[in-house]
Amino acid sequence: MKKIKKRFINVNVIKGMMSITLLFTALMSCSNDDDKTKNDSANNGIVVKTSEVINSSYIGNGVQWDPYPQAYKYWNKPISATDWDKMYKRLQFMKPSFVRVVIGAYDKYASGNADGYDPELYIEGLEKVLQHCQDNNITVMFGDWGFGPYDINANTVIQSRVENAAKYLAYLVNTKGFTCIKYYNTVNEPNYSASANGGNYNLWKKASLAFYDEMVVLGIDSKVKLAGPDISYFGESDLEWFSKSAQDFGSKIGIYDVHLYPSKGSMFNNEFENTLAKIKKNIPAGAEIVVGEFGFKYEVGNSNMDKALSAQNISNINADPFIGQDSNTMVSQYFYGVDICALTMKIINAGYSGAINWGLDDAMHSNSSSVTDLKVWGFWNILGEELLGDASKEELRPHFYSYSLLARYMQKGSKVFKVELPSVVGLDIIAIENGGKYMIAISNMHSKEYTMPLSIDGISQLTGVKKFVYKEDGRKVDANGFPLPEIENMVLKSGETVSIPKESVTVFTNFDY
Predict the structure, then answer these.
(1) Domain range spanning residue 400?
(2) I need a labelling partner for 452 at 20 to 30 A (CA). Which of 89, 90, 183, 262 fits?
(3) Segment 209-232, tens digit of pLDDT
(4) Is pTM beyond 0.85 here?
């Protein structure tokens, strides 16, 4: 992830910005004349074009789930069996089809000795993560933060460490049997100046090609494909990482990968859609691309709502000694569950093949080996009681409800249809089919309700439909906090009028589970 500097801000400024936060939904509203135009255009309705397929075999929506390196190596707080079971139960509901898992060699086989190799060191957490993925048919994009193989001062790659990294991958796949690992990142965000290769493309290329050669030597190149370039996209100057990768690697890259942390403002003016299109245009025709990390960083936006949310986030970080600099405390807020679904839907509708939310759990990482600077991004903190003495931190955050539905009902192999939308503010919709079952999901980031017809070309009705609604108050959950449908076994007729609440996510699905 891109690191951010911790900043301090005058309390009076915070108070002013907080008042803006309370009003940010009003900033999204338009004039009366604009609203009239939007209401008129809404009468055109939503049309699912089943004859126009955006993606014929989606990999899945999922999460970053790293194997708790600090907990096992530095904090002496291994995850208890009870907490593992709690996470497994939650993930069984979410059903992510796609998971990214990243390690550091220094936290595993090279712990204590950069040139050492002992594959059993600190493997417990990693085994538990990968075993769950193996048992549940979850595609894993595995990788290393990448700090082992590089000598930046000498501008060179340490070949023996590249060989150890490849040997460890072969150990996991062949010896341990984790065939769920399908893709491999050699370095996290190699375009970033603070990355292992210092942002040097040629150094990253040299190490990645050397790693690929070792995969061939070990006979695992047919089992695991390189994913790259795995950059964090900051602007158009980063596009050459894709074109250069295509030229230098050819078919050695099995899937393209990018990290995206847009502003909230870019969700409303087509800026984010344009970014997705520009990136996709720079990979080879027919190649697949996934978003290997995504979330919101309000600090990158210029809109009033981004400025207000950024100020509130900074205030939250400064007020809590256990929250690290690289955190998004907005994950505790209801609206984040709407925003993150809108972001996911834009990725899907842009023709990408998978999306991975950063991240599953606050307890996965801190900015240092200390407990006092946790990276708060997760759906929970599974070590809330053990680390902070606060069991409430282990409870589900609101966005679990909405995002889990997009993962659960969009399993690998799903077909994505084009959806025609009326010209209204804040509306995103996906429509998918898998095995003759369907999901239509609607995210409304706007502060007003819409009512409009929903048509499905070539289908008169869907039967046995469940309707879930992620709303701020009164959403239905079971004893575990998992989503429950508001309506079950309904008939969704093509062309019928649907109500879309303000700042909500609505899911219609006739999948059996």
Answers:
(1) 60-408
(2) 262
(3) 999 999 999 999 999 999 999 999
(4) yes
